[in-house]
Amino acid sequence: MGAFLALASAACYGLVDFAGGVLSRRAHFAVVTFLGQLGGLLFAGAAALAVPAHAVRSADLLWGALSGAGSAVAMHFLNRGLSRGAMSVVVPVSAVTGVALSVVCGVLFLGDRPSPLAWLGICVTVPALWLVAGGGATGGSGRLPADGLTASVGVAVQYLGLAQADPASGLWPVAAGRLAAVLLLLPGMRRHAADIRDAGRPALTVLTGAGAALALILYLWATRQQILSVAVVLASLYPAVPTVLGLAVLHERVTRAQAAGLAGAAAAVVLLSLG
Fold first, then answer.
1. Domain spans of the chain?
2. Phi and psi of 24, rounded to 5°?
3. Which of 181, 18, 142 is closest to 92 using CA atoms?
4. What is the pTM of this model?
C-alpha cells in the first residue's frame, strides 16, 4: 500500500506540474505559485479538520512549516523554469537532486535500510530521470538546469521535513506547511497585484494547488507505511507525467535518451515495489 500511495502522489504531482507549466506561460509564474499555494492551504486545512489527529505537537507543525518552505522554493523556481523552457527538461532536472539528497539523508541520518532490490531501483532512478531530462540538454537556455536544480533542493526539504512529523499529528503538518508557504510568498505579491487581477484563470490555478496538497497528503501517508528512501524515490517519479504530456499534448519532441529514461523509470517502479 505504501508503494501505491507514493505512486499516486507522483501522478498527482505530475499532473499539477503540467498544469502549472501551462498556466505559467499565460500568467506570471510568481502569481501561479502563490495562488497554487493558497489553494493548497484551503484544501489541506479542510482535510486536516476531516482526518482525526490524536496529538499535534509544536514540533510536528514546525517540521510541516519547514516542508512548506521547501515547497515554496521548489514551486517558485519550477514554475519560473517552466515559464521559459520545455517541461521535458525542467521538471526531470528538478527531481534528480531531490531524490539523491532525500535518499542520502534517509540512509545516513534516519536509519533507512533499503533492500537490495530497492537499492537497485534507487540506483536506476537517478540516471533514468537525468535521461528523461535529455541528458542535461538545456534547449538553448543555461538558466533551465539552474531553476530545476534549485527547485530540487526545495523538493528534498519538502519531502524530508514532512516525513519527520508524527503520525499522531494527522494532516496538520501539511496544513502548517501550506500556511508557511503562503506567508513566505506573500511579500513578493505586492509587486504582482496587477498580475493577480489579470490572471486568466485564477480558479484553475487555485485548483492545481489543491492537487499539490493532495499529492503531499498521499506522500505523507506513504511514509507512514514505507521507509522514507523508497517512498521519496517513488513519489519523485512525477516528472514522467509532465514529460509524457509535454510530448503528447504540447508536441515536444522525444529523444532516444528520454525514451530510455522513461523505460528506466518504469523499471525502477517495479524494483522499488518488489523491494
1. 2-274
2. -70, -15
3. 18
4. 0.82
CA distances from 227 to 38, 151, 164, 206, 220 (A): 30, 23, 12, 31, 11
Q: Convert the pLDDT of each residue in 148-177 to its tens digit.
A: 778 888 988 998 899 899 999 999 999 999
Q: In this predicted structure, which of 76-85, 114-123, 140-149 has the lowest mean pLDDT?
A: 140-149
pLDDT number for residue 20: 77
DSSP per position, 203-223: HHHHHHHHHHHHHHHHHHHHH
How far apart CA 52 and CA 23 sit, in angstroms, is 35
Within 10 angstroms of residue 58's Cβ, the number of other Cβ atoms is 8
Which residue, among 134, 161, 128, 150, has the nearest Cα to 232 in the 3D structure? 161
